[in-house]
Amino acid sequence: MRDARDRDSEGRARNARPRDGLGRPLPYGAQGVSRQPEGVVRAPEQTVAEAQELLDAGKPFHAHEVFEDAWKSGPERERELWRGMAQLAVGLTHSARGNVTGGARLLRRGAGAVERWVEDSAEPGPYGMDLPGVVAWARALADEVERGGGEGGERGDGGLVDAGARAPRLRGAGT
After folding, report:
1. What percent of the chain lies above the pLDDT cut of 90?
2. Phi, psi dihedrals of residue 14, rounded to the nearest 5°
3. DSSP state of 27
């Protein structure tokens, strides 16, 4: 009997179902959002710019994929930074999906990882990023999510927060 699941070129199972902007599976045949290509090696500045565009567009799930690529392909000394940034994007994803526990937990876990990286590296602003500002954003949003919503109860896409409206400013307030 033939396996009906989608497989990649190495035989690993894949899920070709369309996804919405928050990465949730949609029914087969539905119009979904294009997937973020995986395994792309980018310059760190390009990672930050592309992730910010995706975050601003309300696609934190896709931004997580960009950060994950940097985490997996970047220099060893930066892996914890990019892993923490990926966790922050996933925390925003879960918060926008309405997952209070997972959203708050991942926002705090990512904030802790980024904060530890800053302490260990003594670099609060690599590639133009405002990491102390990003950490403060994550902790404040985690608190808001646990209280039941974003600023003023702002909701988007059925979740607790509007992911695009609550996206972090990776390079600070003016960027």
Report:
1. 67
2. -130, 160
3. -
Helix (H, G, I), strand (E, B) or coil at 137: helix
Give the separation between CA 39 and CA 158, rounded to whole angstroms: 30
> Which three-class secondary structure state does DSSP give residue 167?
coil
Model confidence band, residue 21 (pLDDT cutoffs 50, 70, 90): confident
Cα–chain center distance at 14:
21
Task: Give the Cα separation of 59 and 116 in Å (integer).
Answer: 26
> Residue 65 is which amino acid?
E
* Max Cα distance, the chain (Å): 58
Contact status, residue 69 vs residue 38, Cβ threshold 8 Å = yes
The whole-angstrom distance between residue 134's C-alpha and the CA centroid of its chain comes to 12
Residues 67-98: pLDDT tens digits? 999 999 999 999 999 999 999 999 999 999 99
Question: What is the pLDDT of the chain when averaged over all its residues?
Answer: 87
- The DSSP bridge partners found for residue 13 are 7
Residue 41, both tokens: 């090696």
Q: Which positions ≥6 away from 53 have C-beta within 8 Å? A: none
> Coil, strand or helix: which one is 128?
helix
Which contiguous run of DSSP H or E holds residue 168?
none
pLDDT at 65 over 50: yes
